[in-house]
Amino acid sequence: MLLAIDTSAGTSVAVVDRDAGVIAEFDSGDSMRHAEVIGDLIVRALDAASVRPADLSGVVAGMGPGPFTGLRVGIAAARTFAFGIGRPLIPVVSHDAVAAEAFVSELYTADEHRPGGPRGILVVTDARRRELYWSAYSGLDEVGLPVRQDGPALAKPDAVAHDDLFRVDATSVSAGRLGMIAEVAFAAGRPFAADEALYLRSPDVTLSAGPKRVSA
Question: pTM of the entire structure?
Answer without folding.
Answer: 0.90
